[in-house]
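> tool_call: predict_assembly(chains=two)
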Amino acid sequence: MIFLRPALLFLVSAMVAPAAQIPSIHVNASASAAWNKVFAPLNIAPGEANRASILVIAGNEPENLATVAEDHIVVLEGSGSAAQMIGITPTAQPLAIRHIVDSHAPETQIVWQAPVQTVITTIPNDFTIFATERWKGAPVLAGKRTGRGAILWVATDPGASGMERYPYLLQALADLGLELPAQTTSLWAFFDSAYRIRADVDYLAKRWRVAGVGVLHVAGWHNMEPDAAQDEYLRKLIEACHRNAILVYVWLELPHVSERFWADHPEWREKTAAGQDAQLDWRKLMNLENPQCRRAIAGQVSNLLNRFDWDGVNLAELYFESLEGASNPARFTPMNDDVRSEFKVFAGFDPVLLFDPASPYFGKKNASALRLFLDFRAVLASRMQSDWLKELRSVRTAKPHLDVVLTHIDDRFDPAIRDELGADVARAMPLIQAQKSTLLVEDPANLWNLGAERYAKLAEKYRELTKNMQSVAVDINVVDRYQDVYPTKKQTGVELFQLVHEAARSFGHVAVYFENSIQKPDLTLLPSAATAAIATPSADGGLQIKSADATRVRWEGPADLDGHPWPVQNLSFVLVPAGEHHLSTGTALASVTIIDFNGGISSAFVGANTVTLSYNSVSRAIAVLGSQVASITVDGQPFWKVDPQHTASSFLLPAGQHIVTFLR
Amino acid sequence: MALSLFRLDFVRLTVLLVVAAGLTYAQSAESELAQGYQALAAKDYDAATSLFRKALLAQPSNAAVHKDLAYTLLKTGDNAEARDEFAAAARLIPGDETASLEFAFLAFETGKPIEARRTFDRLRTHAGAATRATAEKAFQNIDRPLADGIARWQEALSRSENPMDPALFSAHWELAQLAELRDNLPLAAEQYEICRKLKPEKADLLLILGRVWQQLNRVEEAHAAILASSRSSDARTAETALEQLGSRYPYPYEFLKALGLDARNVNLRRELAFLYLAMGKTPEAIDQFKQVLALDAADQVSRAQLDALTGNKRAAAGPVAPVAAVPLNTPTVVHAASAAASPMNARAMGLKSFQLGYARDAIKYLRQAHDEDPDDAEVMLKLGYAYNYAKDDGDALQWFDRARHSADAAIAAEANKAFHNLNGDVPGQTTLWFLPMYSSRWHDAFSYGQVKRTFPLPGKLNHWLSFYLSGRFTGDWNSSIPKGAVNSLYLSDSSIIFGGGLSTRTWHHLTLWGEAGESVKYLPFRHDIGNALPDYRGGLTFAKGFGTLIGAPGSGLFYETTGDAFFVSRYANDWIFSSQNRAGRTLHVTEGTAVQLLWNANFLHDLKNQYWAETVETGPGVRVHMSWMRPNVYFSTDFVRGVYTNNLGNPRRPNYDDIRVGFWYAFTK
């Protein structure tokens, strides 16, 4: 038997494909910094010319381009002699490029902030044209596959930051065969079911998981009041997510409760400084300072949490309106009777007078009076957050697995936010830490036009508040921006990948708002951009993986992790736990295969008929099995036993640190 | 004989092959459909979507497949795509209320609330009972919050001490958006204009205003706004505007109107300056360059050009560089100086000069290129354009003429169009109008109609005149009843009049025309008219409308007037003078449906003083155009009271009341 293992190893090595190649890039062009910025979000690092798998060439070399392109991905910039060598021919017709159309998203308007003057170029017939100039239809991005490589031609350099000209350049490379080794499995995404109630929840859940989603934050206000059809849909959605290893958190937007609550309780509506009911954008705000109103809402929230099988709660944006602050009374809250009375006792005047030009307290003239109220308001917002976190604590006694997230707009990067919204994240932080919750930082709309670098700077601000950055997440709003932004109104392609990647490198978790605003062509590369994992090839043909989170690594065939058989894999990927690990070719698949797992695996042991995992999870963990098991134990206690009447392949495991054993 | 048989067989074979190819194509589509439904049953939505899309390539008019594709896309959560498929199905079968309802709901859910509201609005009045009820509820669900929101923001602004406070921008913005969503376009325009005053730096506001003005039928302002936006320094606004602008290059007066809206638009003003320069209007160009420099003293291109024009020493420094910031798809920049000659490719140099707007350089190089290759169609076409830009239309016509006879079909077609446009040719067209109506005054139903085909005349004559053949119909119901018929006097000739004539091109709404023909009666038992009578007629016509005419989007006041002076031989060689006037208000009911409430004032007079042609009448009327009607088609009802101004021999004197119910149908092709 001793000889059998090496023989098997040889046999398997011969059968399976070699371990995933780790792409690297070498740029032989003046815009090398820009090109590196294009590829960095996909963890494609600069490499030596003779070892890099992707070569960017702008000049006249190499002479043997066609041969090089046989086993490399060659990116050709412009129409120099290197490009002409393979039939890419410049004409004398001038071309000013300011607006392009890309076949990956033909409806998306791609506009360059500054036009680039070049000439129309003819492309060989065997090239696929990915993008053209809007007015003349001249190709600007085209490519073709070669033997084991590809050629991608691009009319100009990618622009200084790498994202301002060809948003879908990386998708074009993926079409031409670029494969990436590592993907995240822990992306957070927001979901509003309102308009997608006819969607097949299983289809959506699968798509989300493939895109790297680990936690889905589902809008809770549509289900605040029981409704048979809505509730049934939500139950099915949660089940589908659990079947696909996605945890589901209820997303609350207090003081908005629900449409019905607003309609039923006009007496509890929040007021603006203009004296109107506070219906601002889609949110209809209630007066949380009114004891009766608060009790009623607490009852509704408790009912919502108990009616569904949630894994967590996201208490989002619990402060006041609006981003225009006191300068726009028609949007300024709170100005309900309870707050006014409380402030009058505190300060001696009615805060409404801050907006009365005839009053000595008129805020535009009496800055100290306004300051008094703005500070009072910030304390009030913090008190509200504390109160509602306490409310949730009472629900957690019945459902201890519920994780709690507090979504809070950033006021560290832009301190004016505190006065505008009453939001004070430094004040909220101790509450969050006390509850072992996660802070989800939302970057305010006025920062949405800044580059990806803002996330690193933002993270620095939060390191001043906590050492545990794993408990701080960041939210990326993928929406049409109101600012003059280029090349696309909504973040997509290279820009989106830069944002997601920089956020992943800087924060414990990355959330995207919202799952449906991500453009379809971005979904394939999103999980690769959203991981900060570093994969390097090792001498034995395996991979060295270093990551703060569990990472899906492209792999075919049996795998060993750190020299031991590893059971968490499917046909295409191995799930590598957080930390630094060595992945190598294994001898055989485990007796029990776990094709997906949502939770922090510490270790795994593969026995003859068992697989044992040690894991740690703030909420419940989810194991999705690829083979049947007879029973499951958790910490040595029976957890589940096979029941022919109730087959199952995914299992919700208890929150916390546990040892789970799957017996075949 | 053998050749004929061969030809016959060849034709048969070709037909068979075409039929076979068609069948194969159809079978392929059917097969894809079958596979699509199998995939759908297996919940393989991606495959089903792909197969349905392939089938639709072969059967784009298959509404059922559009709908099934839409339902599949709903399963995958791709609601925007599903919306478009329901829209396609509803277009193919306008009566498909399910598709229309689905479209409306999805339009609302996917960020097209205006279309949603309009569709629900249409369905709540023009659909079956069940759909009407659903649409009514959905309409109210959209409309009520909009109305509430408008009221709320109006109230908030009214409470404000200074509604023009820049801090209240968002209130005006919200109000404008809500008003636009609710099709309250005057309010939307007013609020967007305030927004623009508060934030003039927000480039897209002018484009938004253009959109609203367009819907308000403020066409010229809308065009000016779009033109100004297309030259915005904000690239996205400029590109979005260019999408809407159309391919015609604007005239200087349009530039001036645009500058009226956006006086600080340097790109726009600089381009106008270069346009003036190209047109040889140097003083105007200089004035505009000066204004550009007043706005932006650092504008090097304008500075250098102005120096060149005014003889400043710096002009000697060399030619002016082309402007980088001008719109990219229009030839805009004109160079005062010649580009340096180059021994390189004359064609390339010519095309490049043309591209940059250097008309004279382009002509020089393109002529050289033409000498090198006389068959190069593109060179001939570009020479035509270059001469046109250089204001040498005689030469331009010659080059377009040559290019339109070239072998390159695409270039020949473009050149042909350019040739006729430049030549001022008006193509032949067919006009049909038809007016059945009932008149209570005559207790009779009448029908008038004409079909007319114009034919271009050769040469310059075509600029002034057109020749036409015409068939007119005039008849009534009572005359067609042999016994007991009521003679409706001259209101019906019960004839078809075939004729040919000449008319002038319409000039300042005036048209002069003359026609000769034969009037043939179609009622054999009617003996008060001859079987076939020579018919001569002609006269001068004036027609003009003001304000929100029927067919224009939005509501508003209107006035229409027509004046005719015409000779008719069959009415004893009489001259008749008629003036018909209508004024009132057009009410936009739903998208495509409008009602006009109007007041008529008509005058009729003839040289022979025949009592029936001597009237003054006035009274209210209503005209209705429904969304399903073609343009220029409407129902009308008028209630007029008339006075005969000559009662000599008038059996009906002195007054009359008349209710006229008619249907006007007209089209030109």
